[in-house]
Amino acid sequence: MPVRFRNDFCRPFPRVNELLVRRTAEHLLLLTERPDTELSILLVDDRQIAELNKYWRRKSGPTNVLSFSLTEGDDTSMAMNLLGDIVISVDTAAREAKYEGISFHARLEALLVHGFLHLLGYDHEKSELEAMRMHNKEKELLQQLTSQRRKKMMKLAVNVDHVATLREARGISEPDPVLAAGICELAGAEGIVVHLREDRRHIQDRDVLLLRQTVKTKLNLEMGAAEEIIKFALDLLPDMVTLVPEKRKELTTEGGLNVAGQKKKLKSVIGRMNDANIPVSLFVDPDPRQIEAAINVEATFVEIHTGRYADATSEEERDQEFELIAAAAAEAYEAGLRVNAGHGLNYVNTTRIAGLETIEELSIGHAIMARAIFVGLDQAVREMLGLML
Ligand code: PXP
Fold first, then answer.
1. Which of 30, 49, 97, 298 stands 20 to 30 A from 339 (CA)?
2. Cα separation of 249 and 383, whole Å?
3. Which domains does the chain have, with CATH numbers?
C-alpha cells in the first residue's frame, strides 16, 4: 500500500514512532476501501507548518495539520490514484496532547484522521452540518483503528521473578509472586513468566506449583536445560517453556542460547516437551544462524533477546540493534516460528519493538517491577500496555 512518509521534524523529542504512523495511514486506506491509493505524510515543526500556512492559506502562525488534495478537479491524479499530502506539526501535536491529557501518538493519530478526511472532501468549515458529518466520521474511523489495533495488539507477559527476589532478601513469605501474578492478569497481562533457577535464588518450587493452579492466562516456565528442571517441567505441565542459558554467577540471563552449538541436546529436550504437549520457546540473540538452528531443532517459538538493543549507548547503535531484531523476527516468522521478544525492555524503548508485526508477545519483568514500587503493580502493567498499543 503506497504510503509515502517523510519526517522533517529534526529534534529528538518528542520521538515519533514512524512505523506506527505509517501503519495507521495504511489502515485508513484499507478502512475506506482505497488499497491502491497513494498518500503522502510529512511531519514538520511549527516553523515549517507556519510557512506553509502562510503561503497556501494566507494565515499567520502554526497550525496542527494541513491537507493538500491532489484529487480535486484533477483527472490525472484521480486516474493515478494519488490522494494527496498530509502535513502535521509535531510541535503542535505534542502541545495539544499535553493539553488534552492524551498520549502524543494518540493525538498524532487523530490529526492524521482529520487530515485524511479533508483529502476525501470532508470540510468542517463549510457549514455546521458538514462539521457534524466530519466529526462523526472522525469518531467512527478512530474507533475502527482502535478495535483493529486491539485485535492485532502484541501481548504482554509479565515476569514476576523480582517479587520473589524481594521476598528472598528477607527470607519470609512476603511479597508473594503468586499474588503479583493475579494483579498483573487483572491489569491486562496475557501471560505470567517465572524462571525456576537451579539455585532457587528467587522463584521456589512452591511458587510454580501454586501458579500452575492460579494463572488464568498462560504460564511460561523459563528454565535452563538441566535434567532436574526438565523433570519438574514435565510433572508441572506449564503452558509453555522458554529455554535459556543459565549460569550460576550471572545477575540475570546474559545472552541468548547457542542453539547452533547444541542442536542434538536441544532437539531431544524439545521432543520430550512436545510429547507432553508443552510448546518450547528458545531464547536467542537476533542472529540468523541461531534462528536457522531454532527452525532445525523444531522449536515452536523463539524469544528474541532485546538486551543489546536496550543497552545501546547511542542512537546509531540502538538503530542497528533494532534492525537486527526486526530482521531476525521476520526470518523466524516467515519460517513458521512464533516469535516473542524480551529482556531489558522498559517504558522508553518498548514502543518501537511493539511496532513489529512479526512479534506476538513481549516478556517484561524488571522495568514493570521497578515502576510498581512507585505507582503500584496494577498501574505499572497498564502503563506498559498503553505503550504497546
Ligand atoms: N526474557 C528472558 C528470557 C529473561 O531471562 C528475562 C529476564 O528474566 C526477561 C525476558 C525479562 O527481562 P527484564 O527483567 O529485563 O524485563
1. 30
2. 33
3. 3-149 (3.40.390.30), 155-387 (3.20.20.70)
